[in-house]
Every structure is written in C-alpha cells, then in structure tokens.
Write a structure and sequence with these properties.
With 267 residues, the protein is mainly alpha-helical. It has two domains: 55 residues, no CATH class; 199 residues, MetI-like (MetI-like fold), CATH 1.10.3720. Helices cover 82% and strands 0% of the residues. Helix 4 runs antiparallel to helix 8, helix 6 crosses helix 8 and helix 8 runs parallel beside helix 9. The protein starts with 13 loop residues before the first helix and ends with a helix.
Length: 267
C-alpha cells in the first residue's frame, strides 16, 4: 500500500476546534447546572431502571383487551381528528400564506403581521390549546380537532410561505415581465408549481397530528388518548399495553403510507 497523502485530508482549523471545545464545555456546564437546579440525578435514574422494567414485565405484559370495538372506535376517532384538523389547517394556512408571502402580497407590513400571527399559533403547544378549549367546550373530539387545527395552521402557514416563495421566484417574474397581472399568474403558475410541496406538507401534518392527538386525548380531547388514560386510571395496565401497541401500529402504518405518497407526488 502506498503512503497516505496527508495533503488531501482536510483537517479542521484551529479556530473551529477551539469553538467546538468551548461549545462542549458550555454544554456540560449547563447540563450540570440544570441537573442541580431540578434535583435530577442521572445515576439514580440509571439505578431505578430495574424497578421500571419490573413494572413493565409484571403489569403491562402480556397485553390483553376485551373491548376491541371501543379500541377500534377510538383509533378511528384519532385518525379522523388528524385528517380533519390537517384539512382545515391547510385551508386556513393557504389563505394566510398568500397574504404572508412578500412576492405575492405587496402591501407593507402584512407579511410580517401574518408571520408573527402564525408564529404565535405554532409556538403555543397543542396541550395548552387543549386545556383552554376543554374549559370552553368540555370533553370531546371537537376539542382535539380545534386544538390540532390551531397548531396545524401555524405550522403549515410557515411551510406554505416558504413553498410559495420558492415557486414565485421560479415562475412569476417571467410572466409579469410579459405584462400579465398578478391574480392569473398566481392561479396559473405559482399555485400549480407549489401544489406538490403543499401536499407533502399536509401529509406530514397528518403524521404529526396522529401523534399529538394521542397526548391531547389524555386531557379530554377524545380519541385513543382518552381511552388510554381511562385504562391507566383504572389500573388496567394490560388493556393500556394493548392500546399503546395499537397506537404504535397506526403511527408506523400512517408514516409508511405518507412516505410512499410523498415519493409518488414529488417524483
């Protein structure tokens, strides 16, 4: 074997290594301060693993379910909640995105206002919206759908704005240079070019909403989470174990399905 040519090996500069060392040092210090402030002891957590696995082995295994109709009904509710909230969120997000894209809306200040509003919707957790809506509407699937719609609107608005920005940059300027007005350009050039990206983001939102709806159900927002919390409160851990497995199966199945659809759409 010939000698290795060290001149071809690109080494990190001294400044980048120093910056990485400083970053890791700060990260360790912050971790130590955080564990001290919260009273969390990593060693105790590791030593307590035996009790955790013993609890799982004794109470959660083997899974058992005697109310399959209730489980299937809750799973379908969760799926419907995710799809309905993604659909409504997409409609609202598209309306906001058209106003929040600077290339499409030339009114000063509107873009920043829309982006700020979407940021508020996006950064408030689903659980907080669910708590507020449960207090207003009571327990039920309507709470889950509304909470997921609010957060989905904020997320999709940001994604749609980025997609429209890219589509407008590639398709709008040549048509405007020919004398075409803005509405036909948006309808016939920008939106068709952005449509595959829209569909991909909506499918991604359905995935996120299925996961989120499980958590929201635990605070009364309906769906599989509400059923799971009921089993846990009844100490029926075998049925809770079956419910958790069912949630995992449907999440993985939807994930695989949406991945296939995205590949078909984007190719």
């Amino acid at each position: 074997m010939g000698k290795m040519d060290n001149s071809r090996i690109k080494l990190a500069s001294r400044e980048s290594r120093r910056a990485a060392f400083v970053f890791l040092t700060v990260l360790v210090i912050v971790f130590v301060l955080s564990t001290g402030f919260t009273g969390f002891n990593p060693l105790e957590a590791l030593l307590a693993q035996g009790e955790f696995w013993n609890f799982i082995a004794v109470d959660f295994i083997p899974p058992y379910m005697d109310k399959w109709e209730a489980l299937l009904r809750a799973l379908m509710q969760t799926l419907y909640m995710a799809i309905a909230s993604a659909g409504m969120g997409a409609v609202l997000a598209l309306s906001l995105a058209l106003a929040g894209t600077p290339a499409l809306c030339r009114v000063p200040g509107i873009s920043s206002l829309v982006r700020g509003f979407a940021s508020v919707l996006r950064n408030i957790p689903d659980l907080v919206w669910a708590f507020i809506l449960v207090a207003a509407f009571g327990i039920g699937t309507i709470v889950g759908v509304l909470a997921l719609t609010i957060s989905t609107t904020g997320q999709l608005t940001r994604f749609f704005i980025e997609t429209l920005d890219e589509a407008a940059g590639e398709n709008m300027e040549p048509l405007l240079a020919t004398g075409a007005s803005m509405p036909p350009v948006v309808l016939q050039a920008v939106l068709p070019a952005a449509l595959p990206g829209f569909v991909a983001w909506i499918l991604y939102s359905v995935e996120l909403n299925i996961r989120s709806s499980t958590i929201l159900g635990m605070v009364g927002a309906g769906g599989i989470g509400l059923l799971l919390m009921g089993y846990i409160k009844q100490y029926n851990y075998a049925a809770a174990s079956t419910t958790i497995i069912a949630v995992g199966v449907i999440v993985i199945s939807v994930n695989l399905l949406t991945d296939c659809l995205r590949k078909i759409i984007l190719t």
